[in-house]
Model the fold of this input.
Amino acid sequence: MTTYNPLNLPKNDNLNRFAFVVDVAEEIFLRKGKMIAYYGDLKFESLGSSLLDILIKNTFNAPAYIHNFVVAKGQGQLILGDSGNDIGCYDLDNANMTVKASNLLGFSKDVICQESTLPGYLTMLGSGKIFVSSNGPVHFLELPCRVDEQAVLGWADCPSPSYRYDYAHVTGVMSMVGAVTGITLSGEEKQVDFTGAGTVLIQSSELGLKSSSILAHIIAQLPFLNRSELTSVSGAITQNSRT
Amino acid sequence: MSSFKINSDRLLEVGLQNEKVMAIAGSMVAYTGSMKFEKSILGGEGFFGALKRKVTNEGMSLMQTTGTGTVYFAQNAAEIAVIPLAGEKIFIESSSLLAYDIALKTNTTFAGLRGAASGQGLFTSTVEGTGNIAVISRGNLITLEVNPKYPLFVDPQAFIGYKGAIQQEFIFDVNWRTMVGQSSGESYQLKFTGQGLVYIQPAER
Amino acid sequence: MPSYNQLNEKLIEVTLNNEELFAKRGSMISYQGNVSFARSFLGGGNVSDLAMRTATNEGNALMSARGTGKIYYGYNGLFVSLITLANETMYIESENLLAYDGRLRSGTMFLGNQGGIQSMVRGAVSGQGLFTTTLQGSGELALLSDGNAIGLPVSTEQPVFVDPNAYVGHKGNLTSTIVTDVNWKTFVGQASGESYQVKFMGQGTVYIQASER
Done:
């Protein structure tokens, strides 16, 4: 097992599949809570404080996601990790790439981040680095192809995809034992269709990211609540489970 | 001495020649040869060790495996790393310890405030002596050096353990809290200074 | 013959040339080419297997993929291992079966046949059901596991003992028996308890995963 220190840590590269080292020299935008450790002198500020207005106006044009990100500045080596998800870094060279918002970990300050017309995705434009996490390693596909919606991580240099419904087999089932076994949608019925040129990025699974930090926080706080507070938590859980 | 080997990242292979090894109860997945498994109440440190564990609620339920053959240990598909100790002492989160040589001595120490907010126990385990220990982590374990020239800052939920002449401090920083954003937990960082090694996992607990 | 290619530990790519493949429903990640998907109830077995499966709730919902093109399969972020059978029979927990092609004949095996009443107990207690899926012939199949799957060789001189919750399948000429060890039972700390192990004897390979169910 290698022992790392600021001298031999990789610069802006993966340490292993699940950890990435960012060599911070100028500001970068990072998703909250994904920092594991760092050497050096770094400061983290949340977006929305007035000193950063200028920065925001130029690069972060996705207001719905502002509170999920912070700005890291200073000098040092920052190690990013995301609950055992694979982390990858993509270099944009005056190009465009759209990624699922929940998978975007961070990006360098010159990249412009905007909301995609497809809900839940962010389009990154310009030049710089983008850090993306995924459940399992990322695989690149060439067009044309059809993908299970939950496995789509993003796409680059191609037009927005469309939805394709493949119910050809469902009617067959209906006339057989469909009533007995029941029909529920799986990834085979509703597919995301990519046509044109470019590259599609897919995850190796249809699951979302492994994410337990919210859960861990909530569970850690429970022992501090009294009985009536626990009852209101229980009520809130039932209400949220209904949606 | 028993041999500790990792088989494809997530499986620990321990070779025993009429020897013993200590492991977390329920982590055995397969074995060959002849083995006996016994629940271990003492955890290798005597009556006072057991009493301390009861008081501090450290919750380390152990099993002692004795025999000749190969035993395979795993836990929830977590990655496993083997750390050899050569007459040293390592401080480690008890929930991250998978298995260790019977020759090593274990103990519990007070870890300070760290436990309360991050949901870890208030106490941590120490393992001392010469032998192998196997540690579980989410994502491969990373070893970072701490040196007077470069102190290290760590997210408490990624922290697994350390060894060497290291001092641990809690840094309460308003800015740090903004890194979390979801609920109030994790309002501090750990700062390590001195000379030694810190072990972290690339994930939060 | 469909060709299987392991892209990474969680994703496989299968190339079909006007052929048919059976895979776990919901595991299709992506595809290219001209492929049509249909619900498959027989999955290459026969009607009596279907009846047994429905009756025992084997829960092995299958889709058949037919045509020419490349299909990418993965499931819930679980690890995938490719296993080649050379005129052998593979016993596999149905929830761990990702994909297999028409070269193999599928069936359902009542665990009771393999070791009497003890095996029946094994199924009921470990919650895995009394039946398991068998695949016979020569060809390839893809296995799912939580964490990587390891194949442990079993020989007549060296039997292998396995935690039933870590067991995913086996192939070859093996007999399995339940071993209860009074000492072993002392580790109960979990609700269902791991109060027994499964002993495999004979000649073959046992597959285990690096976690308990």
Summary: Residues 65 and 101 of chain A are 8 Å apart (CA to CA).
